Amino acid sequence: MFVTDSFRSTWVEVNLSFLRHNLSRIREHIGGKSVMAVVKADAYGHGAVEIAKFLEKENVNFFAVATLDEAIELREHGITSDILILGPVEERGMKELLVHDLVSTVISDSYARLLNEKAKMFGKSLRVHVKIDTGMGRLGIRYDEAKAILEEIAGWEGLRVEGMFSHFPSADVDREFSEEQIRRCVEVREYLPPYRRDAFFLHIANSEALWNVPSSYKDPFTHVRPGLSLYGVSSTSKELLPLMVFKTRIVQIKRLRRGETVSYLRQYTVQREREAIAVLPVGYADGVPTLGSGKYEVVIEGKRYPQVGRVCMDYMMVSLGESPGTLQEGTEVEIFGHSLPIGEFAAKSGRIPYEVMCGVSKRVPRVYKGA
C-alpha cells in the first residue's frame, strides 16, 4: 500500500534507491569526472524538486535545466547547488539569473552582448557557459566561428565565462560523427589562453555517450550530463534500474456478451459468449496515448492482459477473458515500469521513453520510496 495526499487510484512510484544505484554505476564508469544531473522537464516526469534534493544529498553539486522557471523552482525549494540553464532566457527574465545565482548559456554573440549589458546594469557579473554547435544544428555558436566570439567576450565585465559545452545528436548510433564532434569541441577549447584551460568546465557527454563514446568523458572534459541514464533507461547499458512504475487500480469489472462493443468508435467487439472487462481510471490525460489503443498490455498479479477499445481521456479498458478469477475491484495494475518495460510501452504508441516519462501528467501523483 502507498501513502499520498492524492485521492486518485492512479499513481507513479519513483524508487529513489534505484536512482542511487544508477548514479553509482555512472560514477564508477566515468572515473573521477563530475556529474551534472539533467533535471529538466520535471526530471523527465519524476519530479525535479524531489530528485534534485535527493541527488544533492548524494553529493551532486551541479544541475542542468531547460528554462528559467525550472531553475527558479529548484531554488525556491532549497536547492543550493549550481544550476545551468541550457537554453536562452528572455530579456525580461535576465535579472532573475543574477538574483538566483544561476549559470546562463551563451548561444550567440548578440545574446552574449545582451547578457553582458543586463548584468552591468545591475552591477553584477553573470556566470555563463558557452554553447558550441559541433554538429547538432540547433542552439549555439558554430564551432568554426567560435574563436572570435570567445576572444571578444573574454574581457567583458558583465560576464564570467566559466565553461563551454556541446551536444550529440546521435551518440547511440554514430560513433564516427560523435568523435568528430569531440575533436571540434576540444579544438575550440584550445583557443583559450593556457592559464584559463585548467579551470574551465568542458562537457559534452549525454547519457548514451557515457556508454558508447568513452572519449566524451576523458580529459579535457570535466563533467558529464546524464539525464535518461539517471532515471534507469538506456539502449546500451544493462546495469541501470528504471525508477518509474506507473500504476492504477481496477475500479469496475463488468461482463459483456458476444457482439457488444467497448469504448469510443466501437473498435473492439466481444467475441466470446461472456467476457470480463476491467475498467481502469487512467487515460490519455494521464499519459497513455490513444495511438496505442488496442496494442497495450497491462500486468495484473504477474500476468499480462490486453488493453481493448479506444483509450479515453480518463479511462481505459482491459480484457480479463471469460473469467476474472480472483481479480476484483481495487486490484493493483501496472501500466509500465517493472514487469512491463517502458521501452515496450513506448513502442506501442510510436513514442520514445523520453516522451512517455515526460508525458505522465501532473495530475498523476508521484510517490517516492526507497530513499
Summarize the structure in words.
The chain has 371 residues and is α/β, with parallel strands linked by helices. The chain folds into two domains: 192 residues, TIM Barrel; 126 residues, Lyase, Ornithine Decarboxylase, Chain A, domain 1 (Beta Barrel). 28% of the residues lie in helices and 25% in strands. It contains twelve helices and 21 strands. Strands 2, 6, 7, 8, 9, 10 and 11 form a seven-stranded parallel beta sheet that branches. Strands 13-16-19-18-17 form a five-stranded antiparallel beta sheet, with no helix packed on it. Strand 17 and strand 18 form a beta hairpin. It is elongated.
* Structural class based on helices, strands and sheet pairing: alpha/beta
> The CATH topology of the largest domain is what?
TIM Barrel
Radius of gyration based on Cα positions: 24 Å
Q: Using the alpha-carbon principal axes, give the shape.
A: elongated
